[in-house]
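This part of the workshop introduces the protein records we will be handling. Each record describes a single protein and holds just a pair of labelled lines. Instead of coordinates, the fold is spelled out as a row of discrete tokens. To make this concrete, we reproduce a full record directly below:
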Amino acid sequence: MSKVAVKITSPETIIEDYQDLMHIAEYEKFLPKENKTIIKLNLSWSLFYPACSTQPWQLDGILKTMKQDGYNDVLSVENQTVVTHPWKGAYGNKWLPVLKKHGLILRLLQTLNGCHLNQLLKCWRCMIFSKRS
């Protein structure tokens, strides 16, 4: 059954509010801690467009919560499209300092673990919530 969580927030409490929302939604019931978890960032164009791309505070709140809750095998990925450049977008959307803060790097989805995007669904090392590598 789906669960939706909504909370009024502020710039001062946004990171903790994401933690509250994730716990209200009981995300741990659906994401096994022993599996590799892929965080797919969302990049619209290569510029910062609020409400279109992953917000840096959203990424920070999610990664902080997952780390505190014992998720130790997390990857952050983004793909290139005809209108996006992942590294330019990661810089412009201020993801790089957030990823560094949580000990992660941005990985390009096309080459994750040597798998091309077209082969992603066939590559067991790249599967979300599949076998542990």
